TrEMBL record:
The keyword Transmembrane helix applies. Keywords: Disulfide bond, Lectin, Membrane, Secreted, Signal, Transmembrane, Transmembrane helix. Belongs to the FAM3 family. InterPro entries: FAM3, ILEI/PANDER_dom, ILEI_FAM3C. The chain crosses the membrane at residues 6-23. GO terms for cellular component: extracellular region. It comes from the Eukaryota. PANTHER family: UNCHARACTERIZED FAM3 (PTHR14592). This is FAM3C protein. It comes from Atrichornis clamosus. The gene is Fam3c. The keyword Disulfide bond applies.
Length: 227
């Protein structure tokens, strides 16, 4: 009886061990399959990220070097869509922000830190040029100045206003006419003419919109002011 009982115990233990082994093998296979699936998905996700083009500040086409501020801006579209000014991935002026208007739109940025100092727009069709002149005279040295037209930015401009804007580095301001589209980035105290300027004349034969030329866009990297 003892031998029969011992034999049964051995059989039970053997069955238990065999069952445990089979279960553990199945479990490990499933775990391996799940881990394989996870790693495969991770590899695919990594591949997808590597093929996706990188996004640079303000959506510009390439990264700016060190000690430069990325910017992108566009003029208004006819009298329907306002201009947009972005610096260092911060939208400073736009229709969505509800801080743009007919005429010349201006954003002032600290030349050392890239921080926004002020935004204003001046109606050059139904307004007065005097507030624009006063504003331009108040700009401090080392300030980055970004300007964009909307609807009409030239009718009320006079020689004094144009001269003050030219001193910021603009070359096109002397020729800016009725309903021209214009974007400009310069600075107070700049020693040379700015390379950041786009200007399209209002011409009924070439206008994209009835009575207005196409939108002008511009992007680039502004050198940080050094002490």
């Amino acid at each position: 009886c003892f031998l029969i009982g011992a034999a049964k115990l051995v059989v039970v233990i053997a069955i238990f061990l065999l069952t445990f082994y089979v279960i553990s093998q199945v479990f490990e296979i499933k775990m391996d399959a799940n881990l394989g699936h996870i790693f495969a998905r991770s590899a695919l996700d990594a591949a997808a990220r590597s093929t996706k083009p990188p996004r640079y500040k303000c959506g510009i086409s390439k990264a700016c070097p060190e000690k430069h501020f990325a910017f992108k801006m566009s003029s208004g579209a006819a009298n329907v869509v306002g201009p947009k000014i972005c610096v260092e991935d911060n939208v400073l002026m736009s229709g969505v922000k509800n801080n743009v208007g007919r005429g010349i739109n201006v954003a002032l940025v600290n030349g050392k830190t890239g921080e926004l100092l002020d935004t204003k727009f001046f109606d050059m069709w139904g307004g007065d040029v005097a507030p624009l002149i006063e504003f331009l005279k108040s700009i401090q040295d080392g300030t980055i100045v970004l300007m964009a037209t909307y609807d009409d930015g030239a009718t009320k401009l006079n020689e004094e206003a144009r001269k003050l804007i030219a001193e910021l580095g603009s070359t096109s301001i002397t020729n800016l006419g009725f309903r021209d589209n214009w974007v400009f980035c310069g600075g107070k105290g700049i020693k040379t003419k700015s390379p950041f300027e786009q200007h399209i004349k209002n011409n009924k034969d070439t206008n994209k919109y009835e009575g207005w030329p196409e939108v002008v866009e511009m992007e680039g990297c502004i050198p940080q002011k050094q002490d």
